[in-house]
Amino acid sequence: MISPLRTKAVTRLCDAYNDLGYSVFKLRPFCAVVLACALLSAARAQLSVPDQQYRCPPTEDECGKTHRLPAFELGASEVNHHPYTINYVEFTDKGVLWDPHELKDAVKQIAAAADGGSQHPLVVVYVHGWQNNASNISGDVVKFCGFISRLADDYPVGLPGKAPQVVGIYLAWRGLTIRFEPFKYFLSYWPRRQVAKNVGRTGIKNAVEVIKDAVNVNPTVRANTFLIFAGHSFGARVLENAIDGLDAKGNPGFMRQYFEEMHKTAQTASSQHAKVSDEQVRAIPLMPADLVVYVNAATSSAMTRKRVRQVKNDCPNFRSHPICSADPLYIAFTSTNDLATGLVMPIANLVLPDLISDKLNLISAANSPWMHTHHAPEPGCPQGEVICFDIARPNQPPTRYYLPRIPGKAQVPKSEDQAFDSDPFWIFNVHSNLVNGHGDVWNPNVANMLTVIIQNNRRFQQVRAAAVTVAPRGRPE
After folding, report:
1. pTM over 0.85
2. Which single residue of 177, 340, 392, 467 could bond 398 by disulfide (Cβ 3.0 to 4.6 Å)?
């Protein structure tokens, strides 16, 4: 017999599922039977993960009494002991900040790292994905900290007495809702997909706008800062909707707006059978962000397809635009053994597609071979290749790999005005030796690859070259 307590838990779980807007699931008697069987097999385990705040700003005493984890961490890189910071900013399922001070503190940390333009910050904003949150049991927290540490190892320390120049910001939402099958991975897909889109178009859209504005506070700070946004799994869907989508009022994300402004200028020049004037080129602001990274993205290829088409259509008339010369601006890669996005996601999207935003684009860009710009990393480092990095294996010395471009697939082919091919969007697969499955992101091998890609970004090279290089004890490096 099922106890009244368990029956109440069943009802609450059914109601929670129904509240997400899928009326097809409003079959309470059937739902109760299925959940009751699952409850019996769960052996009194905690069934659901509450929508809750896990961290607390250090200045809030009352909050600190109930939330033991700090919303701010100061760390030092593993090898060179270069300092870095991480701020955590948490959101409810409705896209509301749990504590507005978390976002305010993150913005203050960016300002401290920039120091009015005298320093050269590297800012990395990350949105975690499915099955994660801001707790210490979330694997993404530890892995993201390791990635930031790896970046800090190779980045200058900055001026003595100033804030660390490497700033990590972890944007958290309830990616994990239920702890046992079939609900943890299978039946939670559709509600989390919808929540990811809604959170991206509400609270996290507002947060990334605030962070972007903090970096773009004035031309000097913007020119001296390298800003990265990254998303994993459903976090890529959250981020994509935040920066490239539209909110409920039709306001575009800042990357979408930047692309639209380029499109208008390029189309005007094309209609007049003229090139964009030097005056128009000088009036172009720096990009609102320098790099966007999607890893094992659990989101449709619809938005990426649109942006790639735009690049191919507009850049021939506007090669001097920062988007057209970026190589890359966006990176999307997925593991070949990621069953979550390679198998579960397309099947789930086929069964119940999100026709409004995704239409019938059931798979991600990185799972679409015809969109690839690069082959999967291959062993070696041929002469002339710059994206070369180490992949380590257990009990074996590291092996050198490189990321080969696919010939003839350049999104912006070289011309008289540009002596090189460029791909604003890098889209490719990786094998299990680099990313093993869906959740194996930010491991040391991925950190090695992304560090090399970032270091070869022309904008990053400009920022890093100008950065003040001071050893931890005040001696020049």
Report:
1. yes
2. 392
